[in-house]
Write a structure and sequence with these properties.
six-stranded mixed sheet; binds zinc ion; 295 residues; 13 strands; alpha+beta; 30% strand
Length: 295
């Protein structure tokens, strides 16, 4: 089943929900970064959370989540666009810890630390930045804690990744449910009870549920309508042109150093692992361009 994001709202407008199936894009992230299972789960949960949170934004913002902790994984950086493109990486992709309570120990890998949420207007302008302490380092509860503390929005967030014994991603997905102002105590009680008794998101995806079915499962008893369902994917914004710009930004002295030494530059994109080789001739073209711009 292809990766999808669905959005739904209660007919009376008091509850909204988003769900995503992200198996393919989390597997792509694993292959690109060579992550071991605990790191795969951490990265996959964060990528899924970014897509879910991104789905609640106005359509002219990009969202990034940066988790920093004192555990062996150190950090996770992911970002998502309104179009459903997501990318990201972890600081130490080879992190793997013994399972805790039968689950991949993402909280132990991340440790104690902070979550920084940044919303960047696509048309320029000042980014909005918010910093909250990690609640558990398990990603879903950290994002729920951010929504409560920074946006005063009581939410349930579940994100999960099932890693096969051979290390590949078997299933990944998640949900985000929010009670809007005016939600009745009965509706909230029903949501809490649905979430408490539901299987994990990765288990729901393993059973073959798509994004709208996950929402129907979690919002059972609440009359809703699906607002939207659309594809999501791992996609990076790096390009050869951006690499050239970065090389130019190194400055002339550095560029001359490279030309005198290795005579080629290798640039690896942190977000997607793409490798760009800039050969001597192209470096000389860039050097000439920098001479033009500096008179
Ligand atoms: Zn890239």
């Amino acid at each position: 089943m292809a990766d999808r994001l669905a959005r739904t709202i209660a007919r009376d407008g008091t509850v909204r929900g988003l769900a995503a199936v992200t198996t393919d894009l989390v597997e792509e992230a694993r292959r690109r970064h060579g992550t071991l299972p605990t790191a795969t789960a951490a990265l996959g949960r964060a990528l899924t959370a970014a897509l879910l949170l991104g789905g609640t934004l106005k359509h002219d913002e990009r969202l990034s989540l940066e988790f920093s902790g004192d555990g062996p994984l150190r950090g996770i950086l992911v970002d998502a666009t309104p179009a459903g493109d997501v990318r990201g990486f972890v600081s130490r992709p080879r992190t793997h810890l013994p399972a805790r309570n039968g689950k991949l120990d993402v909280g132990g890998a991340l440790g104690r630390g902070v979550l920084c949420v940044m919303r960047v207007p696509l048309e320029g302008g000042a980014p909005y930045r918010s910093l909250v302490p990690l609640a558990s380092g398990e990603i879903g509860s950290d994002v729920a804690s951010y929504l409560l503390r920074s946006e005063q929005s009581p939410s349930a967030v579940g994100v999960g990744v099932f890693v096969e014994p051979d290390g590949r991603v078997g299933a990944a997905g998640g949900y985000l449910l929010q009670a809007m102002p005016g939600a009745s105590p009965e509706a909230i009680e029903r949501l809490v009870s649905n979430v408490d008794t539901a299987s994990s998101p990765s288990e729901l995806v393993r059973r073959g549920l798509g994004a709208p079915e996950i929402l129907a499962h979690l919002l059972a008893g609440v009359p809703t309508r699906v607002l939207e369902e659309r594809p999501v994917r791992f996609r990076c914004r790096c390009s050869r042109a951006r690499v050239d710009t970065a090389i130019l930004a190194m400055g002339r002295a550095e560029l001359l150093d490279v030309l005198a030494g290795e005579r080629r530059a290798e640039v690896v994109c942190e977000f997607c692992g793409a490798r760009y080789i800039v050969e001597e001739e192209e470096l000389r073209v860039l050097l000439a361009a920098s001479e033009d711009s500096h008179g």
